[in-house]
Amino acid sequence: MDRTAAAPTRRVSPLPQFNISTSTLAFDQHFTTNAKGILLLAEILSGMLVWILIGGTDYFRLSALCWVMFVSVLLWILTICLFIIYLTGVHSRIPQIPWTTLSLCFNCAAAALYLVTAVVEAVCVGQATRGRHNYNCWTASAFFAFLATLCYAGSGYLSYRLWKTTEEEH
């Protein structure tokens, strides 16, 4: 019986291959000591304080504060994802994504959203009774929303400088 062994054929995938393997991911120890890392940590902390301080009140009675919760939680989650991407060096492993442009757009959009959110929240503080729990929490949350706005604006400025530098090189 003559059995011929079929030669294994190699299939070529039409999708691009990305160099993402868990063994090559590394923790960048110096990322949290540069301006970008410090601002990302400040954004995470101030954003977390915004939604925690509002979440501890009966914010759902004012639809404007529901907007504040939505924006603060969404941007907090996205900022944590971005922080992990930069901390682990994934951004250097996927060069197909324009990380400087993405970071610039994200930070500018986040700064604009947080500015609107902080103003809306500051207006809502006037609807609370002074000295009560809601008033104190909403006031503190409005302060941290303005702080988050400044942090995102600072990150946007750093991203713009990096983007401008990379655009001039090309």
TrEMBL record:
Ranges that cross the membrane: 37-54, 66-87, 99-125, 137-160
Its membrane topology: Multi-pass membrane protein
Domain MARVEL: 31-164
GO molecular function annotations of the record: structural constituent of myelin sheath
Example GO biological process: myelination
GO cellular component: membrane
PROSITE patterns found in the cross-reference section: MARVEL
Compartments where found: Membrane
Alphabetic keyword roster: Membrane, Transmembrane, Transmembrane helix
Chief subcellular location: membrane
Protein name: MARVEL domain-containing protein
Source species: Poecilia mexicana
